[in-house]
Write the structure tokens for this entry.
Amino acid sequence: MRYLCFLLSTLLVGCATIVTGTSSDVSFQSDPSEAEIEINGQDRGETPTTISLDSDRAYTVELSLEGYEDETIQLKKSTSGWLAGNIVLGGIPGLIIDAATGGMYVLKPENANATLDPETADAAEKLTIRVAMNVDASQRKIAQLEPLGR
């Protein structure tokens, strides 16, 4: 009787839901660390951290840190390999349960790592002036600074 109850319970529960659950733990890392994490427009802390997210939807992640370019990472849902277990054990009821609970999906990538690039000023905003004390006469002169008030 116990074996029959066990067999019936496995037939009524989705294999992927049992093994992977309905959420995915995603690790967030950045170089440099302490970048702010925004997931689908909501603040979720700073790197490094691990956040549990529902597996049945996609996410847009923005990593930002003052002085660095923002980095965008797409987390996409993909079908769990454990879904195939329903063919052996769960059958149609298992597939239905996995689809209804979101257990048939996992998020990719599981590790969201980013290297943030330092911000660069636009060419129009950046002006570099170099002063040479010993000028090489063979170099081409393109301009000359004159003192004010002459």
